[in-house]
Design brief:
Elements: E1 7-8, E2 13-14, E3 20-21, E4 33-36, E5 39-40, E6 42-43, E7 49-56, E8 59-64, E9 71-77, E10 80-87, E11 99-105, E12 108-114, E13 118-125, E14 138-139, H1 144-149, E15 152-160, E16 164-170, E17 179-182, E18 188-190, H2 203-212, E19 214-219, E20 224-229, E21 234-241, E22 244-252, E23 255-256, E24 259-260, E25 267-268, H3 274-277, E26 279-284, E27 288-294, E28 310-317, E29 322-332, E30 335-337, E31 343-349, E32 356-362
Parallel strand pairs: 4-29, 6-10
Antiparallel strand pairs: 1-2, 3-23, 5-32, 7-8, 8-9, 9-10, 11-12, 12-13, 13-14, 15-16, 16-17, 17-18, 19-20, 20-21, 21-22, 24-25, 26-27, 27-28, 28-29, 30-31, 31-32
Amino acid sequence: MNIQINLSFTAFAFLFLFLFVGCTSQQKGNENVESLEGTMMVTDSLFEGSYFYDLEDDCLIMRSYNRDSLIQILEVDDTQLKTLRSMVSRGQGPYDVNSFEISVQDSNIVLLDFGSYIQKSFAIDYRSEKVLNVNRYKEIPLSEEFKRLYTFGPSDFEAVGDSCLLILGARQGYEEFISMYYLNSEKILPLEYWPDDGFNSDIRIKQSVYLGTSRLFKCKGRNRFLYQSSIGQILALFDVDENGMKNLYHISCNYPHYEVREDGLNYKILYPTEESMQRYYAAVSDNYIYIKISPNNQEKDYKKYPFYYGDYVMVYDWDGKKVKDFVTDKPFNTFVIDDNDKYLYTELDDLGTGEVTIYRYDLNLKN
C-alpha cells in the first residue's frame, strides 16, 4: 500500500519515502493484555473542550474550540467535570496568541506563540481567580536573535525550571531539531541529536520529518525527557545538563528511508505493511510513559472512528522498561494520566452526537 505525503517549504514541495530501517521496534504483544472499561465523565453546560493538554492534580487543562477563550480549565471531581475558568484569546494583542504551544509547570501555564517565527512567551497562574486580569500575566523575555533564528517550528516545548526552555524547534537548514534556550543568559544550545537514518539530501526535509508530528515530555521527578515522533515510531529517552544531551536511549525507532524521484526534488513515501503505518502518541506521569498506537490507515476508519484514533496502549517506565499493555473499550483521540497512575482519561467524538466526550479508566499501576 503506497501513501504519499506532501511537505511544503518556501520554494519547494517535497514528498518522501518511508520504509522501516535501523534502530529497534517495540510492537504490541498479545500476552497479558488487560481490557479496560471506561466510565463517561459528566460535563457542565459551560464545557467547550476540544482536546487535552495536561492534567495537574485535580485540574484538567484542555484546548477550547472558542476563539475568545482558547484554554479551558476543568476541575475533576470523581466522574464529574466542573468548568473553573477559560483564558487566552486569539489575536495580535500583547497577551493574545495565534499558533501556540503550552507547557504546564506546577500552577503555571507557559505559552509560546509563533507564526512564521517565534513571537513571544508568557506564563499564567491558571489556578488564580484573577486569571482574566492580563496584568497578572508574566512575560518571558526572548532575545531577538532567538526569535530570528528559530523559524523552523516549534512543534512543542517543555519549561525546565524557571530559567530554561527545551524546544522542539531549530534553525532552518541546520542539523538540529531540539534546542535549549537559557532565559537569563540568552544562550542557545542545539542538542546533538541528528538521527542516522541514511538521508543526506536537503536538511529541511529531514527536519520536517522529525518536527512535524513530534512531542516532548518531561519526567518531573528527574531531569529526564521523552522525544516522541509519530513518523518513524520514535520513542527516545534522554537527560540534559548544561552541556547538552546525554544518556540517549531508544525505546523504539524505525528510521525512514528516503527515495528521490527522477526530478531530484520529489520523494515518495511507502508503508509496506499495516504495522508500518502505525503511529505512536504519548502521555506521561512521573512514573510511567503511556504510548497509544494509532493504526493510521488513512484509507479506512478504525472501528467507525477516525483513522488517527486508537485503543491499544503500551506502558513503560522512565528507564525504558516495558510494564504492561492494555486496550480500552472505545478508541480515542487524545489522552492524559493522573500523577498517581490511578486513572486514564480519554477524549473522543461521540459517534451518535459528534460531541466531545470524556471517559475515565481505572489503572492502579503505581506500586
